[in-house]
Amino acid sequence: MKNNNIVFIGFMGVGKGTVARALVKCSSYFAVDTDDLIESLENRSVKKIFKKNGEKYFRDLEKKCAIWCENNLTNTIISTGGGFYKQENINDIGTVIYLQSDFDRIIEALKAAPNSKKKFKKRPLLKDLTEAKKLYDQRVKEYEKVANITVNVEDWDINRITKEILQKVGYYYDS
Ligand code: S3P
User: Fold this and answer.
1) pTM (2 decimals)?
2) Pocket residue to mutate for ligand 1, from 120, 125, 126, most atoms within 8 A of Cβ
3) How far is the C-alpha of 58 from the C-alpha of 77, rounded, in Å?
4) Which of 55, 79, 99, 144 has a beta carbon 3.0–4.6 Å from 17's, enabling a disulfide?
């Protein structure tokens, strides 16, 4: 892979950012998050961007961000928003890893999180869980198609998950 980047894709709340941060601790990768990059660029939250300018505007920002990632990042783990997988150049950014989990498990984990309210509030597309489930069903096959590697994260054993990822991307892992 030309840039030696890892790109995490997967549904909202599956833990892309958390896994990225755990990987940084046991490797020499840096980590960035596309939603964070967009929020810095716009100097406002994803929630506000959706509310004021709508989803299409946000998707255009994701596109801009995808091009920037391809042109500027190396040795970086990139956690992405749940819809970022649609970017045309995603496979040119790095090795795409799909973090997979059952929909109900994702929602249960979000509900059980200490900052649960905030986690739901910041995600406009999780407001209506019936609609979110439809989106999940629609996206699952697409995530699989785009991904080079799929890692199931349902057991949420972070040590196993990080080890599996590093092994699968061929990173020397001294355990
Ligand atoms: C979205 C996921 C969100 C964020 C935005 C849209 C989506 O990121 O990019 O609310 O389309 O699935 P997370 O996957 O980090 O929640």
Assistant:
1) 0.96
2) 125
3) 22
4) 79
